[in-house]
Amino acid sequence: MHLALALNDAGWHPAAWREPTARAGELFSARYWVDQVREAQSGRLDFVTIEDSFRLQSTRADGPDDRTDQVRGRLDAVLIAARVAPVTQHIGIVPAATTTLTEPFRVSTQIATLDYVSRGRAGWHVQTSTRHSDGAYVGPRTIPSSEAMFDEAAGHVEVVRRLWDSWEDGAEIRDASTGRFIDRDRVHYIDFEGPYFDVKGPSITPRPPQGQPIVTTVAGTNAADRFAARSADIVFLTPRDEVGLAQRTGEIDDALADAGRDSTLSRVFADVVVFLDDDAAAAASRQARLDALDGGVYRPDTLLFTGTPAQLSEQLMAWTELGCSGFRLRPGAVPHDLYAITRSLVAELRDRGAVPREYRSSTLRGGLGLARPANRYAAI
Amino acid sequence: MSRPLKQIRLAAHFPGVNNTTVWSDPDSGSHIDFDSFVSLAQTAEGAKFDFFFLAEGLRMREHAGRLQDLDVAGRPDSFTVLAALAAVTERIGLAATITTTYHEPHEVARQLASLDHLSGGRAAWNLVTSSDAFTGANFRRGAYLKYAQRYERGGQFVEAANQLWGSWAADEVLADVDAGEFLRHGTPGAFAFRGSQVDISGEFTVPHSPQGRPVMIQAGDSTEGREFAAQYADGIFTRHGTLEAGQAFYADVKGRLARYGRSPEEMLILPGTTFVLGDTDADARERAHHVRRQQVTGAHAILFLEQLWNRDLSAYDPDGPLPDIDPDISSEARAQGSAAARSLNREAVATARQWRERAQAGRLSIRELVIEMTNRQTFTGSPATVAEALNAHVQANACDGFILVPHITPGGLDRFADEVVPLLQERGVFRTEYTGTTLREHLGLDRAPTGAVAAALQ
What we know:
The complex is a heterodimer. Chain A is built from 10 helices and 13 strands. Chain A has helices spanning 30-42, 77-84, 104-117, 146-165, 222-231, 242-258, 280-294, 309-320, 336-351, 364-367, and strands at residues 2-7, 47-50, 92-98, 123-127, 172-175, 180-182, 192-193, 198-199, 214-218, 234-237, 267-276, 303-307, 326-331. Chain B has helices at residues 34-46, 78-85, 105-118, 133-136, 150-165, 223-232, 243-255, 281-295, 298-309, 339-342, 348-362, 366-373, 383-395, 414-426, 439-443; strands at 9-13, 51-54, 62-63, 66-67, 93-99, 123-128, 173-176, 181-183, 190-194, 199-203, 215-219, 235-239, 268-273, 275-277, 335-336, 379-381, 401-404. Chain B is α/β, with parallel strands linked by helices. Chain B contains 15 helices and 17 strands. Chains A and B meet through α2, α3, β6 and β8 of A and β4, α2, α3, β8 and β10 of B.
């Protein structure tokens, strides 16, 4: 079983920052993020994702609210990841970045560079920007319809991936006898042409250590499923319950087959929001207290688990039977639920032989059992 | 002299993607691996430098329609490297070169403000403007900006970024658990900038950063560039000339500041500077000649000549005489993506004739001529000689400091840090310890430029 941790603000509950142990005043400091990722690493989790959005957090679907009682504001996730990378050693680091509002060339070189500074532990959590007004962040630009937006996202990921491959391994030859630094026959234009943008290439950044850093995304709608199946290495599912989980793993398998993807080369995770205490009643009352503070019941868009780490470990073991190979755990509140994951849940799962005790690979790909891929441009 | 001595500002430029950087030397390491960046940044921080500097190039350079394969090529993304360096350094400033032409102002402002938070107030950007369609081929916009409009966009880009950085009050985040108030007011970060080149609106997510505004340096010596720097920049990254040329440039640029309600010390003149050190001045000159031969190989010399001649000269012997044919001025330039190539544009035929005469008079081969005609090291000598020359330039108001460009990665600054910096410290013109924590504090730039024309002059 693979385990990932989804980091977001002070946790996923909107009142999580009001927990006594929360470090709400440090959310915009490097130390806060370093401590969380190190904690996740001490629990031997495979990777963390770091949420991001150009928009300010809001309870409203299309625009800011005026609430002052919830966390507002965030730093750029790619740079948080880069700041954390040199002071961690094993854990994968997967920041979110949108395809809708960014340059594929820029995302490609930034994630490749994250792979260099982390020595092969980088990924990219692909998001799209769906709000009508998001286009104003990059100047007047119309946000495409859902179908078209995922089509654009697929083109974006394709460009990013081609750029990662545009330098073959070993293209830097430093041949003093001929005076050549690179072998230009091993550095390739990507010549991408699509309805939304054209990109010439090659990348300015040589092929990153993993060859292809790990691409993740959340599936959901039909269009999102098709995009995830076509473009991602790890697909996060957000079912509401166990029946939904069984159904969704089936649907994403079909989407993978339709996309012609080799199912051994991708991983399907389920997202679970967790509130954990050694006593199940304590977890429930903590969640209820946060709801009361926030003035409403928190209803996540995915599986919700409230109980003990031992109960959760049994639950996760059972859910793996439904066709997912791992879980992305979203701690309700940090650090409380993070510690419960890294210190208690992981111990339970180890006792059951479900997760290894040590990191077995120096790269994120390796940890997920995914080989370093061949370069699409290398002569066969 | 009764005037107090000026303090010298020093920055370390990671060796660039061009032939100043020597890759064939046994001491030359990777230009991509993070360890090289850590090594140079930590050397610079150990020597109490003001900041560490990364250049930018968004398309692989070409020559005659093919990738240029003679020079160091490839580089990681600057913001990502600097955020990672923030983890392994404590005080040194972290500067990224960013073109305003192919990046989006919201995203650049967001990453700079994030870097400023993640580094505890050490972020800086070196603003460049460009208009080449060649680079545009890697971006959504493609070729879209006329040369004349690049500073128009640059100015709007800076003004938009300043608005974003000012969109959160410094005391907006309360995080008051007892009161249940995370924010002081609702909905911070609202921005709307309407311009001909930049037209954006939304809410900025990054709270007020430690420096408020990251330090901004402007690169470019043109009249437009000087005026732009006087209006918006904390510093100007210039080409280095002679002492007299530096003094004229310095007086010109500093003289433009009053119009924007700024005093001369509110903007720093920082020329890019190369150096070669030796045990004695004669030893340094010998080393400098060796470095020049490493920088200009026979293949380089032919390539350099092809840029001017705009012809295939591969059949010529670099150790032989110059071509007796004239440059081809009828077709498109062979070199793309290189600043040096662009500067060789006009009057190619006349220039070529001058070079030919020079070569004949000095009995120089192609390679020898190119070595003589292209960039030499700015300062060559023993540590004492170089320290004296650097200080003389600063005290004589030819500049306020230097952005040093070593030619070897990553060890090219070691000897400077070990042997020149202590001499500057002995003279009392360079810090022995950091006294502040932010880059603005290091540079003595408490007040960021507003961009506004002074009220009295409006």
